[in-house]
Protein 1
Amino acid sequence: MRDYVQQSAHIFWCSAANTTEVSYSPAVGYASSMSNLSDRRLAAILAADVANYSKLMGEDETATLTALRRFRSDILTPIVDEHDGRVIKSMGDGWLVEFPSVVNGIKCAIVVQNKLANDPQFRLRMGMHSGDVSFADEDVYGDGVNVAARLQNLAEPGSLVISETARRSIDAKLSDQFTCLGSQKLKNITEPLVAYGWGMSASAIQRYHFELPERPSIAVLVFDNLSDDADQSFFAEGMAEDVISALSRFHWFFVISRNTSFSYQGRTVGAEQVARDLGVQYVLEGSVRRAGNKVRVSAQLIDAVANHYVWTERFDSVIEDIFDLQDEITQKIVGAVAPEYLSAEMQRARRKVVPRMDAWELTARAHWHISQFTKADIAEAQNLLLKAVELDSQSSFGLADLSFTHLMNSVNGWSDDPDASKAEAISLAQRAVSMNGRDAYAMALLGAADLFSGHHRDAVKKLQDAIVLNPNDPHAYALFARSQVYLGDGKEALSNIKTAIRLSPRDPLIALWYSIRSLCCFIAGQHEEAIDWAEASVRIQPNRSSSYLDIAVNNALCGKLDDARQAVFDLKRLDPDTSLHLAERTHPFARSEDRTRYQKGLRAAGLSR
């Protein structure tokens, strides 16, 4: 069949009752001269064309046309009539056929293909979709025709390719004859759709299965409804739909669309098969069980390629408002999955040899080095990120992390020119945001660059924008809290850092967040609690030098001078050249009273310029 979407053609509706000319144009679709066709309906549409038709015509036009007429009269027309179909013929080598049901259409297609199995001349490619077809103002159009034609283009000679929508309309026995070809992006069709093939060779099936994208990829399946009440399926579907929407806001995720991942609903398919079908690394599945006003939601994140569970969790709640509960559980799932997902990618990237890494793997490995908080690790992260950005200049996540490395070099005094490093951090963050204005992480890093440049209010505004972009991004909340605490707003800062920790309690950067919580306590004068949080930060990441500053300050202000001096001693082992200047860079307090009190504590602990 010619490419129906790209070129005009004249085709004919043919049946026992009538023969009517129909024309197609790219702008309006198929147009019929039948003025009485003015309805709109769902229809099963079969598209078919003769493989290598131009080649056959070039070799022997007379013989080809004779064989074509014989095929039409002896095979196509009678078999289509037997299955209650209506044939559409176009330009001699292709047909559209409308059927009252998908089952009729598929059975007809298989009979025709079997009849031609041993024909040395004619091999057909076929595609079928069940969709909306409209007849109005002497036009006929709709996705039923367009999608069927696109699916036909996926078929190899002698085969049939159908859509997921069509597959759902057939029974298990007929469905078992089809092999999943994975999610396919069809030309001029907005949403990717899952396709299934009959009569396809093994090589063709493999060709259509997706390769894994560079970004970490995930499919969220509909949660199983384990409740006695079948009506609770809406809650299970809503949970999965909300999780998909929330994960999509993390722009370093490749998230399979709802329509595609929900196509597995009601089918017993393992995570490995889903991953192969859709070309993803991870699968998130779960279940919902409700009894009275109590609900239990279980979720599992599976690395389907490595065949192991990355994370599992169970959430028990009491229902007061069903939508509030759905939001709450969605937030918990996303808050757990996003960092676990990133951590798994970081560990996977660490096992690979650097020269063989793609842009995402280089970025993931760099993110692990950033979480180590040492000068050497930041230098290595910077080298990896430069390679990553060279491979993928459009990666806003890679650019944001590269900005982070320059900012850490500036703040910690690891750069030969801290001001130049800070300027580079701002430039890279601005570039990341301009490249993807919807990336909350990039916006948050731009806010952090403002903060350490002394523009506290600008930082707050950008971090508020980051939270609007992704209300589930813990980094945005943590950096927002840090901006607020340096402005002296310890109460609001505490609320936001609690949110960050709640969203991602095992985040790779959790040591930094514990340090921010320690600062909230310092601002509030709660020095004993500040010590606890700073020590928790050091236990997780012993290389965080500014956490030792927090331990020293709060111990000194509590009168525990021995413990304060020990903290300074531990800090000097990490950085022999450390001084009060480190505190001025790492803790840019906007209020003079906070800055003075912090410096007083450091002097009492034995730190000098």
Protein 2
Amino acid sequence: MPQHDLIAVRHRFLTDATGTDGVRESISNSWRRSMAMDISADPIDLQFVREPELDSPLVEAARPIMQRLADGLESEPVSAILTSDDGVVLSRAGAIGRLGRDLDTVRLAPGFSYAESSVGTNGIGTTLETRKPTLVVGAEHYRESLVGLACAGVPVVDPMSGRMLGVIDLTGRIEHGGALMMTLALSAAKQIEDRLLEMSGSIASSLLNAYNIACRRHAGTMVLAVSDDLVLMNQRLRRTVESSDQAAMLKHAADCATTGKRSAAEELPSGLTVRITRVDTVESLASAALFTVHIVDSTALSTGASRRTPASLPGLVGHSSVWRQACIDLLRALETSQWAVASGEKGTGRCSALKAAAEAHRTGHVRVFGPESLTEAGIADLADELDHDGFNIILRDIDTLDSAIVEQIADLVSGCVDDGWLGMTADLGDGDTTLDTVLLPIFVRTVTIPALRYRIEDLQDLVPLLLRRITRGDELRLSPAAMRQLAKYGWPGNVAELRNALLTVVRKQRTGVVDVDQLPPVCRTFGRHTLSQIEALERDAIVRALTENDYNKRAAAESLGLSRATIYRKIKQFSIAT
């Protein structure tokens, strides 16, 4: 919503507590909390809370990251702020000139609290309330004196206990706030958490490192880590195995860790059988172990026969282990008509994979409902489709829908579990509360479709297939050098972005061999040195902005809240071809 419209909505809300149409749900909820706490919308007059605790593990871990942010933001009107878990500012870096004076005026300084209970809606306090990254821009703030600012807050979580320790926040003038600010805050929080992990220096630290590696290498697989005083389960395992079964599963895993057994199939109290397999990524950890967990067909177990589920989906290609595992998981879900969610990033082919699995095991047409069709009339159409016995329906990109529509859909489908098959695609990374609460519990299986950057070896299969489909059989191929260049790119838009890149190539050439210099500029953003995590995030944000704005540098800079001089400098720094 444009700021001038938001200002009017905010004024109406503060006047009569109604009318938040068009305001993001997280912001409108925070406004209501602020009003319920009787927070004044007048200029801030905060009282000093306490001297910051500067020798805490959080401050110690954050110190070098804060310094790097201060150095990197030296020429930018943005400040980095670290707070405790109750919103008290611990340190502030990079606030110079006018911005520094503005922050001092609103008491966004060490020793003052920016919890919602003190100042209402803001990037720090609202992040603490929701435990989610929060961007608050301009008139989204509750207090009048903050509407000239933009702030991006990200929780900092203890990697060992999972407890929220505080917030890292980037704050600047409203004209400089945007997606890049949030990207940098996310990166800073991850670096602080990594530092906290390094500082722990324990067996648990080594196990957690190995667990994170396993989660990346075995994307889409259930992962479990156990030690004497630590248990880690990834989201897929928590969603798939009921809590009543988890205690028994942990006991079996602990037995495997003690005896050194590599793999064991165990039946859990509910009757579900899982195979627990030890992963060879944990070395020199006598009292800790890392496992992958797979659901096993109990019939096949009892007879000693192995299941022969195809390792690929009809019409789709890929030979990487993570892709094959995702295919197997989807096909096994469809064998027994389990309602399934294909999760993962947009553009990974979630809907295509789900539809291919359904067509392999279900009879009849598979109907796909996307966000664009789930209007009021579309909901009625969905209801009609659900009335047919043996329906086959996919709900696409449900995480992009408003909470009210998600609730309507949940009401419709909850009574139809035995009448047909339903699939859903969503990016579950951010965890929309309504989706988690009312719709996901209806689905039996969640299968993660891996991002293209995690299955980069599949380019060898994907590129020829996509070229054949785009050219309708014309002889066009990429040179080995061009293929190597494609493998260097991070593909933030996944397979959908790869197809668009190849479509750009085909518009200029339909036959012959394509070399590196004929690839689109976005595919040639590989620098001559290894980028740090924060640099890679910056590069990806700039590439996305350039792509979304047809490589218009001024428009891309405006969308990121950067000056033209800065984006030109970054383009050169990251060797982005335009």
